[in-house]
Specification:
single chain, 6-stranded mixed beta sheet, 330 residues, 13 helices, alpha/beta
Length: 330
């Protein structure tokens, strides 16, 4: 009898030891540092927002959230890297370019912007701002949008227009402006706003439709001359600056940007939902909210479902803009 009892205890112990454990991996996420891929060069708005958010997520999750810049092809290089990642710890700071404009602009895309990603949350929306090199603006007698249109029409192809890359809202804002004004300016795509702004301030470029957060410090420092914002309404960060629509006047002109977190397809819903919740909490804190608003950004934090609907609507909207502008990228 004792042998039988002992045998049963050993069998029970073995069953406890080797039975499959319940799946706890998702509740323990992240188990290592998390990459947030920024598909543009440092110092642009995508990079600024990612670096502002990363410390908040690091505190919330107890693991480092590390920024990795992977610029190229209007954001497609970095977005494709995330789409094909399988480590479970890589996210994308996506943009209106990577997830609304590029599918209509590029003949061939390396990723499917819907099937290859899970929307997490919209981080922020920002207006673009039309800025010029101050010395060049003064030399050409450009004080506002009407002056720019006049000079551009009188000198087709002589004005250089910088952008953060093909397919970005910065690029498309310029293309839409050219279409609506009947002007021609030469487009020079860079690998992000940072290097484009350096050349603009250095006098190598004439103008740019940059995201407001990355241009704001240089506007305040007098290194850039702001002519107008591209949003439908004036920005609270620069309330005295007119919109392109009212300054042009160019009725209906609007070309704003947005930035949001996305995860590779197949990411567990629990992970996606917690990422959204912690991001929304961070964006609602007075310190971060005021910091972003002062730079011209409008914090969001919407649910994954709402972000998915937003991306679908933006894809449709920008396909129309791309077609109207005539812009293409081989």
């Amino acid at each position: 009898m004792r042998r039988l009892i002992r045998r049963r205890l050993l069998i029970t112990a073995a069953a406890v030891t080797f039975a499959p454990l319940p799946v706890l991996a998702q509740s323990a996420w992240p188990s290592k540092p998390v990459r947030i891929v920024v598909p543009f060069a440092p110092a642009g708005t995508t990079d600024i927002l990612a670096r502002a958010l990363a410390p908040e997520l690091s505190r919330a999750f107890g693991q480092p959230f590390v920024i990795e810049n992977k610029p190229g092809a209007g954001g497609n290089v970095g977005a494709d890297l995330v789409a094909k990642s399988s480590d479970g710890h890589t996210l994308l700071m996506g943009t209106v370019g990577t997830h609304a404009i590029n599918p209509a602009l590029y003949a061939r895309m390396p990723y499917d912007h819907v099937k290859d990603f899970v929307p997490v949350t919209l981080v922020a929306g920002v207006p673009n701002v039309l800025v010029m090199n101050p010395a060049k603006a003064e030399a050409m007698g450009i004080k506002g949008v009407p002056d720019l249109i006049r000079v551009a029409k009188a000198n087709p192809g002589k004005l250089n227009m910088a952008s953060s890359g093909n397919g970005t809202s910065i690029h498309l804002a310029g293309e839409l402006f050219k279409t609506m004004t009947g002007t021609y300016m030469v487009h020079f795509p860079y690998r992000g706003s940072g290097p484009a702004l350096l050349d603009l301030m250095g006098g190598n470029m004439d103008l740019m439709f940059d995201n407001l957060p990355s241009a704001m410090p240089h506007i305040k420092a007098g290194k850039l001359k702001a002519l107008a914002v591209t949003s439908a309404e004036r920005s609270s960060a620069l309330p005295d600056l007119p919109t392109v629509a009212e300054a042009g006047p160019l009725k209906g002109f609007e070309a704003s940007s947005w930035f949001g977190l996305l995860a590779p397809a197949g990411t567990a819903p629990e992970v996606v939902n917690r990422l959204q919740q912690e991001t929304a909490k961070a964006l609602a804190t007075p310190a971060l909210k005021e910091r972003l608003q002062a730079q011209g950004a409008i914090p969001s934090g919407m649910s994954p479902a709402d972000f998915a609907k937003f991306i679908a609507a933006e894809t449709k909207k920008w396909a129309t803009v791309v077609k109207a502008s005539g812009a293409t990228v081989d």
